Amino acid sequence: MRTRSSNLAVSKLAAYAEDPAAFIKVDGKAYNPKLAREGTRAHQRIGASPSKGAFIMGVLLVIAALVYFKVIDL
Amino acid sequence: MTLILCVVAAAVVLFLVLQRQAPQGIYRKFGLKPGEWELLSSDLGKGHARSRIGAYGVAGEPDALFRGARTGQVVVGEFKNRRYRGFVRRREFYQVILYVGLAREALGATNVVGILAFNDSCVEIAHDEQLFRALIALRGEVLGSLKRRSPINDRPLHKRMSVTPRNRKVRFLT
């Protein structure tokens, strides 16, 4: 469902309801920016697809090892 | 040359299998079985359908939305990157109460529950219409307080009303 930009974020409303003074003190921003960044990274890891780059690198390393140990000749 | 092609083919197959299994991490996080629940949207990981839900001038993107394949029940999942340690923070609880209420409005569903997932545990949160309405009613106060940079009313919500009549088992930090 599309919403207008004037909507108030759920997280901000929840934080205000918990402690209005603390919420206003940080101007509605994260209480601990470092923990917030770690949380974002943890969110990105859950259910993440495998990295294409890591797979391509892995394939190149296996081929390089096969060539190095003379299992295959180029 | 054949061996190189075999290595590439094996890597592609492994990649596709892992890519297909990726959403199962989301199901596991919320303690749900993939065969019984359909993942409607999620902002966890990457490449999943995402949806922002909103009503009454309040909006947000829950970490995951599921629908029961047979029951039609909707589950709103919210993940917190910490250990449970036997308590829920009130802001975490309010967030789920808001998402459950907004999901009821946005999806036109009545059977909606929330799951608050931690790194080591999950807590189920039931819909509480009275608390949801009270939270929504705070919207103007939040905007006004932010504008004047001082809280219009500095009493936390749990000191204005009982916030757990529908969720008696939920334990808070203080």
What is the global morphology of chain B? Answer: elongated
CATH topology of chain B: Trna Endonuclease, Chain: A, domain 1
Mean pLDDT of chain A: 88
CATH architecture of chain B: 3-Layer(aba) Sandwich
CATH class of chain B: Alpha Beta
Low-confidence stretches of chain A: none
Description:
The complex is a heterodimer of chains A (74) and B (174). Chain A is mainly alpha-helical and 74 residues long. In chain A, 61% of the residues lie in helices and 3% in strands. Chain A contains 4 helices and 1 strand; from the N terminus they run E-H-H-H-H. Chain A has helices at 10-18, 20-25, 33-45, 52-68; one strand at 8-9. Chain A is rod-shaped and about 70 Å long. The model of chain A has no long low-confidence stretch (mean pLDDT 88). With 174 residues, chain B is of the alpha+beta class. Chain B has a single domain (2-159), classed as Trna Endonuclease, Chain: A, domain 1. Chain B has helices spanning 2-21, 24-29, 90-107, 129-137, 139-148; strands at residues 37-42, 53-55, 58-60, 64-68, 74-79, 112-117, 122-125. Chains A and B meet through strand 1, helix 1, helix 2, helix 3 and helix 4 of A and helix 1, helix 2, strand 3, helix 3 and helix 5 of B.
Keywords:
heterodimer; A: 74 residues; mainly alpha; 4 helices; 61% helix; B: 174 residues; alpha+beta; Trna Endonuclease, Chain: A, domain 1; two-stranded antiparallel sheet; 5 helices
Topology (elements, then pairings):
The complex is a heterodimer of chains A (74) and B (174).
Chain A: E1 8-9, H1 10-18, H2 20-25, H3 33-45, H4 52-68
Chain B: H1 2-21, H2 24-29, E1 37-42, E2 53-55, E3 58-60, E4 64-68, E5 74-79, H3 90-107, E6 112-117, E7 122-125, H4 129-137, H5 139-148
Parallel strand pairs in B: 5-6
Antiparallel strand pairs in B: 1-4, 2-3, 4-5, 6-7
Brief summary:
By secondary structure, chain A is mainly α. Chain A contains four helices and one strand, in the order βαααα. Chain A is rod-shaped and about 70 Å long.
